Every structure is written in C-alpha cells, then in structure tokens.
C-alpha cells in the first residue's frame, strides 16, 4: 500500500483531477464533489461498478483497469487511496510528469476549505453516526456539504454539496489522516485499537485520538461508555467536552433502551428528557444516535428538535441492509469487519429475527487482522449466530500470508457443528441455502466484496425451494 505523505503540498487550484480507485464509496463521492465544482474528472478502477457508471453519466471519463494511457494529458492533479500499489502505472506516470499527487484525505481537505467542520472518528459506528448527523441537519433545515463512508439510504448518495457553511465528514483514523483536518466539532464514537500496521503501538493509537480531539476548535463529543474513549478523555484538556452514553457520568445520558424491533430509548440532557424511537434496529444504534444528538446540541440545536431529526435517519448502505427475501429467508448485508462490529450487527439482527435463526456468512478481511483476531471472530460468531459459513480471506491491499485462510476462524470454533468453511463462493451459497429455513436471516459480514455473493445466495435459495 502507499502510505499518505501529508507533508506534500496541496495545490491551490485544481482544474483537472484523475482519481486512481474512483469506484470506491469514498473516492466516488469526492469525484462527484469535484464535478460539482466544475472540475474535469477522470479516473480508473480495477472493476466496473454502478458508482463509476453514475460518474460517467455526470461527465467524468472513467476506465476499467489501471493503465498509464488512462492518465489524460490535461490532468494537473492525481488523487489516490492508500490501497493502490506503488507500482500502479498511473501513479508512476503522474510522478514522472511532476503532477500534484495527493492522498484522498488531502483532496477532501482541499474541498473543505475554511468551512465549519464536523469530523466523526472512531473504530466503529462512524458511517452510521455521520449519516445520522447529515440526515438530521437536513431535517433541521440546513444543507451541509458532506462526505460519508457509505451511501445514506434516504439521500441515495455518500456525499453531497450543500449551500450551508457546515461540512460533515467521516474522518479516518486508520492512517492518521484525521489529523489533517481543521475540525470545529469532533465526535469520537469509540476507541478500539486497530490499524496497528500504521500506529505500531496501542499507546500511539490513543495519543492520535487525543491529538485529534484537542485540535477541535469548538467542542469534543466523546463516548462515556467505551473504555478506549474514556482513556482518551482522561488525556484531554479541552475546554468543551460533551460526553454521551449510558454511564451515569454522561452529559447526555442514554437510558431505557428497548430493542424489540426498531430501537427505542430516552435521552436526558441539561435536566430535560426526550423519548426517541429509530427506524433502524440495535442497541448500538441507540448509542450512535446519542452521539449524533450530542453533536447537534453542541452545534446549538434544541434537544427535542435534534432527537426528532435523528429519528428520521433510515440507515446507510451495507449497514444491516436488506437485499431480498426468498423462500421466507431474509438476506442482509453488513460492513462489520471487526469482532466488536460483528457482535453489534448480529445483536441487532437478533432483536428483529423473532423465532428465526441467524446464519452468518463471514468473509475475513485482510490477512493481518485475521491472523491477529481469528479467535475473537470465532468467539463472537459462535456466540451471536446460530450457524456460520466462513469464506476465505479478502486480502485487500495485503499479500497472502502462508497458513492464514478463513479456516483459521472456523477452526477456532468450540463446536465444529456450528461452522462450515467453504472457499468456493457458489458452494458456499448452495450450502447456506440448504441450511436456511423459513423465518431465518442470512447476514453477510465483511468490508471486502462479500456483498457480491448475495445474488448467488438468493438464487440458491430459490433453487432449493423448487
């Protein structure tokens, strides 16, 4: 992978930008915002996608595959993700030409300019929390510019250009780029040490969050429940820290959570209590909503109006997203790729599955995470799902590691009868269809391409019902 060099200068003026990896949810959103600015946009990705076709329909020049010939002669700036290889031919040619070559976070920094910025950071819940804040702000009559890590269901997009001075982003801690932004209000959902390939040590990871929070110009909104967030909070000297959660010490207190169906709960702040009911399930979404409301209050909005606005949030793509029901079996997809996220997703599914069972279809993400956490994944999957089907590892930016496959996860189950490892996708879809019965939920889990197996699962379910 290419680590971002945040010391590189960001051009003052961009007229034609080329995006390497333009099909990703974050990169496609940035490319769309460049188009909004009247900037010529081109880009490439290794496979075609609906996002690429949508950008092409708006006037972008897009290419499938990476080739030096795809870099247009008029491009003055090249935007890349950390996931591309240093040998990428478009990247190498851009360097050879002496173009501005910047990381996606630097392109986002350029777009933000000097606007009032809300940055949402944390190991889990960033995309949902960002979606809640954006949806709520629009419900409150403002139109912020935003860049999210996933499509906001009610808006159908992951980014948008508004006419308000407010800018809302999902800020990435994985490579330290959240320290690049001039944040006004910082939301920290939780701090669960991950991405140690960048940070090296857990202490450095925590210190990164302390630095991020201390730089916020107006307020820091941080979980009172999460142990990692509490550790970060002890290192803060910021004058305006707002805590949220179920802990009795929280400034915005979350109580009376009911998870039977769409989650309901109470929020208390400044002596006032407001009842809330979301359109999405899961106790973790009550926590996400509490953080979003705390941000809105920090921005100056009334508590009850903020709660009502957050209630309008309809979810984000790849966060417990229903894709189809066949033979009475509901097939969902969730982006969860860390044990904590998997537990939250499956716990949410449990609250709405009723008497049905939960069948997890898990794709481990990256060899390094699988090697480090395969026992934790096995424990969470065995505890929260009735049966698990494990696929092979999605390597993403990493080279294969000998001996590290999905079988590491399945082999760590206490009861082998609860799990089945299948490397071949069609065989996995067929097996899942034979296990599932009327009323069950199948939930694909992972931030790789596991969602692409869903059509095969639905087709296999249809065949087994014939």
From TrEMBL:
Cited function: Cell wall formation.
Q: Which reaction does it catalyse?
A: UDP-N-acetyl-alpha-D-muramate + L-alanine + ATP = UDP-N-acetyl-alpha-D-muramoyl-L-alanine + ADP + phosphate + H(+)
Q: Which UniProt keywords apply?
A: ATP-binding, Cell cycle, Cell division, Cell shape, Cell wall biogenesis/degradation, Cytoplasm, Ligase, Nucleotide-binding, Peptidoglycan synthesis
Domain of life the protein comes from = Bacteria
Biological classification of the source: Bacteria, Bacillati, Actinomycetota, Actinomycetes, Micrococcales
Q: Does the keyword Cytoplasm apply?
A: yes
Q: Which family does it belong to?
A: Belongs to the MurCDEF family.
Q: In which pathway does it act?
A: Cell wall biogenesis; peptidoglycan biosynthesis
Q: Where is the Mur ligase N-terminal catalytic domain?
A: 18-113
Question: Which residues of this UniProt protein bind ATP?
Answer: 122-128
Q: Does the keyword Plastid apply?
A: no
State the HAMAP family in the record: MurC (MF_00046)
Q: Where is the Mur ligase C-terminal domain?
A: 318-448
Which coarse location class applies to the principal site listed for this UniProt protein? cytoplasm
Location in the cell: Cytoplasm
User: EC number(s) on record?
Assistant: 6.3.2.8
Q: Which Gene3D superfamilies match?
A: Mur ligase, C-terminal domain, Mur-like, catalytic domain, NAD(P)-binding Rossmann-like Domain
Task: State the protein's name.
Answer: UDP-N-acetylmuramate--L-alanine ligase
Which positions fall inside the Mur ligase central domain?
120-295
Q: Which GO terms describe its molecular function?
A: UDP-N-acetylmuramate-L-alanine ligase activity
């Amino acid at each position: 992978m290419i680590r971002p060099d945040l010391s590189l200068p960001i051009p003052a003026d961009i007229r034609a930008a080329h995006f390497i990896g333009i099909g990703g949810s974050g990169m496609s959103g940035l490319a769309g915002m460049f188009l909004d600015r009247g900037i010529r946009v081109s880009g490439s990705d290794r496979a075609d996608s609906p996002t690429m076709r949508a950008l092409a329909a708006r006037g972008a020049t897009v290419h499938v595959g990476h080739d030096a010939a795809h870099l247009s002669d008029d491009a003055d700036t090249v935007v890349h993700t950390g996931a591309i290889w240093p040998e990428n031919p478009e990247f190498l040619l851009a360097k050879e030409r002496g173009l501005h070559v910047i990381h996606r976070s630097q392109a986002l920094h350029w777009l933000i300019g000097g606007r009032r910025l809300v940055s949402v950071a944390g190991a889990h819940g960033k995309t949902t929390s960002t979606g809640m804040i954006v949806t709520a702000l629009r419900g409150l009559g403002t139109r912020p510019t935003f860049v999210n890590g996933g499509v906001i269901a009610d808006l159908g997009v992951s980014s948008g250009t508004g006419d308000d001075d407010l800018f809302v982003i999902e800020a990435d801690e994985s490579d330290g780029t959240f320290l690049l932004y001039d944040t006004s209000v910082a939301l920290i959902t939780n701090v669960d040490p991950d991405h140690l390939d960048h940070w090296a040590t857990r202490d450095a990871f925590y210190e990164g969050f302390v630095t991020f929070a201390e730089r916020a110009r107006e307020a820091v909104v941080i979980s009172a429940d999460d142990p990692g967030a509490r550790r970060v909070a002890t290192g803060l000297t910021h004058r305006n820290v707002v805590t949220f959660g179920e802990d009795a010490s929280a400034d915005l207190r979350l109580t009376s959570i009911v998870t039977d169906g769409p989650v309901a709960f109470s929020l208390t702040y400044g002596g006032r209590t407001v009842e809330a009911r979301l359109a999405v399930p899961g106790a973790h979404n009550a926590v996400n909503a509490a953080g979003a409301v705390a941000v809105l209050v920090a921005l100056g909005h009334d508590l009850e109006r903020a709660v009502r606005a957050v209630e309008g949030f309809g979810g984000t793509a790849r966060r417990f997203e229903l894709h189809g029901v066949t033979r009475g079996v509901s097939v969902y997809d969730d982006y969860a790729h860390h044990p904590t996220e998997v537990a939250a997703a499956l716990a949410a599914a449990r609250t709405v599955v009723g008497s049905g069972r939960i069948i997890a279809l898990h794709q481990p993400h990256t060899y390094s995470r699988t090697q480090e956490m395969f026992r934790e994944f096995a424990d969470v999957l065995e505890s929260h799902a009735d049966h698990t089907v494990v696929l092979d590892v999605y390597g993403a930016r990493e080279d294969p590691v000998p001996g590290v496959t999905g079988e590491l996860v399945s082999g760590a189950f206490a009861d082998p009868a609860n799990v089945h490892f299948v490397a071949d996708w069609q065989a996995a879809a067929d097996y899942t269809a034979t296990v599932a019965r009327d009323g069950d939920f199948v939930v694909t889990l992972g931030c790789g391409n596991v969602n692409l197996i869903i059509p095969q699962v639905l087709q296999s379910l249809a065949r087994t019902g014939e």
